[in-house]
Amino acid sequence: MKHTLYIVGFGPGSYEHMTQKAIDVMKTVDEIVGYTTYVNLVKEYFPEQNYMTTPMRKEAERCLFAIEQVEEGKDVALISSGDSGVYGMAGIALQLVQERKSDIHVEVVPGVTASSASASVLGAPLMHDFATISLSDLMTPLDLIMKRVECCAMGDMILCFYNPRSKKRNDYIIKAVEKILLYQKESVPVGIVRHAGRQEEESFLTTLGELKDFENWEEEKKNKLDMFSMVIVGNSSTYVKDGKMITPRGYQI
């Protein structure tokens, strides 16, 4: 009988945001493999399991180890936060399985994405066409990222920014805002959610114009915009009412 590599998206991290399929898999596999931070998020819910961790930027090694464990006769969960097919481990794992010509069985288990989790905190900002863009240039050149931002802004799309700010990429979100403002007004609403779906969750609403002035924000507010944050920029019809960020779909009400 072939054993299975499950590529599992476990959502934001809290138990109630995990799908039943993800829970069932993580309860029953022989080993759970993941980035150290992700493993620490699920360990409290599955303390009896065996774990193998690797630090950041060891994605290929992590996937290869998981594949080898399955080839040796184990069922393994290779985990990612959010959805494993959205900036997660699904792509690289499948590529490695194909390159090795491995005959193991692979199943991708979807999870709640950071964009949808953050949107639920803000209200209903993703009710029309939207795009997700990572502002990390580790895998994609910055000029290509900004080209994608501008094209989406030109098309009046809602934008969800993953990895909006780090110590080395302190001003990328401002560069992105400058591209958007070529086509949108400064009054367009922006929602920022940090640690969506986790105990530390916090959020606030702002605008494109205020975000452009990010460098002048108070330090405490600045610190809420980092790699644990999601920035959702509305389109020309997005509005805020009663503390909720809403993009109308066009229904007659």
List key phrases describing it:
253 residues; five-stranded parallel beta sheet; alpha/beta; 9 helices
Topology as a string of helices (H) and strands (E):
EHEHEHEHEHEEHEHEEHHEEE
Q: What is the helix content?
A: 25-40%
Shape: elongated
> How many beta-strand segments?
13
- Unreliable residue runs: none
Question: What can be said about this structure in brief?
Answer:
The protein contains nine helices and 13 strands.
What do you see in this structure?
The chain contains nine helices and 13 strands. The chain is α/β, with parallel strands linked by helices. The strands form three sheets. A five-stranded parallel beta sheet has the order 3-2-4-1-5, with helices on both faces. A five-stranded mixed beta sheet has the order 7-8-11-9-10, sandwiched between helices. Helix 3 packs across helix 4 (90-100) and helix 6 runs parallel beside helix 7 (172-180). The longest helix is centred in the first third of the chain and has 13 residues, at 59-71.
